[in-house]
Amino acid sequence: MLPGLTAALAASIGYGTASVLEAVAARRVGGAKVYAHPLYLAGIGLDLLAWLCSLVALQHLTLFTVQALLAGSLVVTMLLARWVFASELSRAQLLAMGLLIAGLAVLALSTGTQPAQPAAQPLVWTLAGALPVLAAALAVLYRKRAPMPTAVLAGLAASGAALGARGLVLDGGVIQLLREPMLWLVLGFGVVAMAGYTRALEFGHVGPATAVFTVIEVVVPGIAGMLLLGDAAREGWELAKYGAIALSLGSCLWLTLGSPGAGLPAEPALKAGGSEREHDAAEHGEGSAGE
Fold first, then answer.
1. pLDDT above 60 for 238
2. Residue 150 scores a pLDDT above 90
3. Which intervals of the chain are annotated as region Disordered (predicted)?
């Protein structure tokens, strides 16, 4: 169990740090230019490392456990925001962080080692059908500049990636892994999730967008894992597990939606030589990189 928990925590730190880097890049440049910004590329690199860690975690732990632990990345994001952005943490936010960490600790204790099992063929076909639908929906929303619907779509895509990763067994060789259709589905869902979340960050407040994204990517694959993959808590820990999940998600929502100034500001004042984008540039996807 320890390797899985360690990998999940490493992924959480990586995702939280990457979110800040991507948020800065999304506000320094608009539209497709963000994908070439150095900070965004650094964030993508961290995302990839975090994703690999999450794959390792999913080989040992249930979807609900891994995804809930990944929700702890929000604490990392909020703490880094104090340093990168001109933002302060209120007592309510600090309390929410403490409750979130407590919930994640109980969740970790409630989970035993549960090795991943190969996904059934119907699940593979279901995910294969869902991927192009989500990709097409993202193409439509991308032009509408609708941050919250885009965050919902990104969360659903992340759910597909997590569900596929839990059904992907990594005990074979590299050649065998490359032949697995599920691997390419996971990568496809990951691309849609990443593109959608980036677009949501570009035009919306990071806190609410992250809250929606996080709750969906925890709840949807967690329930699907129980129904389709047989994920369960340790014997006698069922109530503790679901109570911890509820506490973690509730704290996450409180942290991002219920506190004044929750999340990163839509137009952050960057420290250490950064530049603040004008409101018009944020609305129209224009602006220059402030180095």
1. yes
2. yes
3. 267-291
CA distances from 162 to 104, 109, 228, 240, 279 (A): 18, 21, 13, 23, 36
CA dist 191 → 16, 91, 161, 177, 238 (Å)? 18, 36, 9, 19, 34
Angle at 243 between CA 160 and CA 246, to 5 degrees: 50
In total, the chain counts a number of residues equal to 291
DSSP 223-260: HHHHHHS---PPTT-HHHHHHHHHHHHHHHHIIIIIST
172 vs 161: CA distance, rounded Å: 20
**How far apart are alpha carbons 254 and 95 in whole angstroms?**
10
Between 268 and 12, whose confidence is greater?
Answer: 12
Q: Is the pTM of this model over 0.85?
A: no
**Residues 263 and 256 sit within 8 Å (Cβ to Cβ):** yes
Please spell the DSSP secondary structure of 123-134, one letter per residue.
HHHHHHHHHHHH
Judged by DSSP in three states, 61 sits in: coil
Burial group, residue 71, by CB count within 10 angstroms (0-12, 13-18, 19+): buried
Check residues 39 and 204 and name the one with the higher pLDDT. 39
Which tens digits make up the pLDDT trace of 117-143?
777 788 889 999 999 999 999 999 988
| Nearest CA-CA partner of 290 in 272, 279, 274, 271 | 274
Per-position b or e across 84-93, b if 16+ CB within 10 A of its CB: bbebebeeeb
